[in-house]
Write a structure and sequence with these properties.
By secondary structure, the protein is of the alpha+beta class. The chain is about 25% helix and about 45% strand. The chain is elongated.
């Protein structure tokens, strides 16, 4: 009985999320990602985001209010980074561990964002050229 209640609750929340997304955005999503599974939606005034499983990878698609796909991001592992970025991390950030890493794709190309931590700080690095990192944000802990 509890399992049935949980399944109904999950199905209801998934439909409720989809109800808050404009029909044009849902149609655009379904035409671009027809084989997506486990889709969840987050919506605001200007953007809607769909997070889903596609070909074994978790992906987030970002749509603007005109139902245009503006960016796609996906979590990656450090060995999926371009070699220049991997080497730069080893050389300059060997005392840090990775807490988040994703690749962002939009009309301008690819960029990578990585969050690194050590005992004293958290650093978010951005790479737009696939060769070097620049500090996007740094926070002392």
């Amino acid at each position: 009985m509890i399992t049935l209640a949980m399944i109904v609750s999950l199905m209801t929340s998934a439909f409720a999320e989809e109800e808050n997304v404009k029909a044009e955005i849902l149609a655009a999503f379904k035409s671009k990602f027809s084989t997506a599974q486990e889709v969840t939606w987050t919506s605001g005034k200007m953007f809607s985001e769909a997070t889903f499983l596609l070909n074994g990878s978790w992906i987030t698609a970002h749509f603007n209010y005109r139902a245009e796909l503006v960016a796609v991001s996906r979590n990656i592992t450090s060995d999926q980074l371009p070699l220049f970025l991997q080497n730069n991390l080893r050389k300059h950030y060997s005392g840090y561990w990775i807490t988040d890493l994703f690749e962002l794709s939009n009309k301008d190309g690819f960029s990578h964002y990585i969050t690194l931590r050590n005992a004293d700080e958290e650093i978010v690095l951005e790479s737009l050229n696939g060769r070097t990192w620049s500090v996007y944000r740094s926070t002392k802990l």
